[in-house]
Design a protein that fits this description.
- This protein is of the alpha/beta class.
- The protein is built from 9 helices and 17 strands.
- The strands form 3 sheets. A 9-stranded mixed β-sheet has the order 1-2-3-5-4-6-7-8-9, sandwiched between helices.
- Strand 16 and strand 17 form a beta hairpin.
């Protein structure tokens, strides 16, 4: 009885220190719609304790066949502690749900595209407000399980959701899918056939308007000209999961997007992929892979280095600084196509090192670095870039 009361107290408090690891701000409304339960349009924020400055942010979207589940699921697993222990601000969101029990004929039932619209509005709220909770909106990632995995992939790749409310896809730096079951909705319905237990939940969530099915499919959002996150796809070791995840990966690569990793979670089943993440009993390396992924894409970006939108990366390049010649400061752009350590240094005409601008592991992308010449005298200088096997240098001139 005491344990039940403690759980209720935790869930109901608007701000509560749960442990030495985080402070919980619960039931924050990200939207308000007449007639909709406020809880369905709310989120919880877990702010890590013991860290200074703004921290990277990970937003979690729960699963449950698009008609069940709740943001508080993370209180009964390891996710909140896993991320806050590593210094992330962790956010868990709710969204409106389809009929439960399943009712494919209910005219007022919530169907697609309501779920991704709500999730996108929640993410937008986080972008605009997370600095008030020590979060850095420039270093944000998404993670979701099951239906939530479908939703994080969809809003990370479709122009119909985040971009439609003013958030560019490039703002999502990393997306982790935990055993997504729907990449290609028409294909899933075809495989379901007339088998009601498999078909009914899909119709319940996505409705009967077949013209929307491609829009609901992450697989069909992969086209050139977009700026995508880094992706980590964790999946079961079943033939259908392997096929759909590999197909999604291959589509990304074929369209010039190389920031994609797969993790086969054998022998975990669908639920264990979520419950074993962060568990001390995880023996297959899922936790290490997920945390390494977010560390690479969210923490690896050094202070003072700006990453720009660049959807397709085909080659390394070091561009001429601008302006050049310059008096006090100039900007240097470069592009890398592999995850590797990047070193950008400035030298004088005699080859003496003047300043190190970058010495970090960076993800593929186009970057811009500001070089402040400070008290350096007028003259000819060189800047040199190294990344893996790539090496290049350019001349620049300071005039004072």
């Amino acid at each position: 009885m005491k344990k039940i009361l403690l759980i209720l107290l935790i869930i109901c408090c608007s701000e509560q220190t749960l442990s030495q690891n985080y402070v919980l701000y619960s039931d924050i409304r990200y939207d308000s719609i007449a007639g909709v339960d406020p809880n369905l349009l709310s989120l919880d924020i877990y702010k890590p304790i013991g860290y200074s400055g703004l921290r990277p942010v990970v937003v979690f979207i729960h699963g449950g066949y698009w008609n069940a589940g709740d943001k508080t699921q993370v209180l009964f697993g390891y996710l909140a502690n896993l991320f806050t222990d590593s210094g992330y601000v962790f956010v868990s969101i709710n969204y409106r749900l389809s009929p439960n029990p399943i009712d494919t004929m209910l005219p007022t039932g919530v169907r697609f595209p309501v779920h991704p619209q709500d999730c996108s509005n929640a993410v937008k709220w986080v972008f605009n407000n997370i600095h008030n909770y020590s979060g850095d909106s420039s270093k944000m990632g998404l993670i979701g399980h099951s239906a939530g995995a479908h939703l994080v992939l969809l809003i990370s790749t479709s122009n119909s959701f985040l971009p439609n409310i003013g958030i560019g896809l490039h703002r999502i730096r990393a997306t982790c899918s935990l055993d997504c079951g729907v990449f290609d909705l028409p294909e899933e319905l075809k495989k379901a056939g007339g088998f009601v237990p498999r078909r009914a939940p899909l119709i319940n969530a996505f409705g009967r308007d077949t013209s929307l099915y491609d829009d609901a499919s992450p697989q069909f959002q992969i086209i050139q000209g977009k700026t995508f996150a880094g992706f980590l796809l964790v999946h079961q070791n079943t033939s259908d999961r392997i096929f759909s995840n590999v197909r999604f990966r291959d589509s990304l690569i074929a369209n010039g997007y190389n920031n994609i990793q797969l993790f086969n979670a054998h022998p975990y089943n669908h639920q264990e992929i979520a419950t074993m993440l962060g568990s001390p009993l995880d023996t297959i390396g899922e936790t290490d892979s997920v945390m390494s992924f977010f560390r690479r894409y969210l923490i690896g970006l050094p202070t003072g280095v700006k990453i720009e939108s660049n959807p397709i990366l085909n080659s390394f390049s070091l561009l001429q600084n601008y302006p050049n010649p310059f008096n006090s400061s100039t900007n240097i752009k470069f592009q890398i196509i592999n995850y590797d350590r990047v070193v950008l240094k400035v030298f004088d005409l005699l080859g003496r090192e003047v300043k190190t601008l970058v010495n970090e592991e960076l993800i593929p992308g186009t970057y811009e670095v500001k070089f402040d010449a400070g008290n350096l005298p007028s003259g000819v200088y060189f800047y040199r870039l190294r990344s893996g096997d790539f090496f290049d240098f350019k001349k620049m001139i300071i005039t004072k």
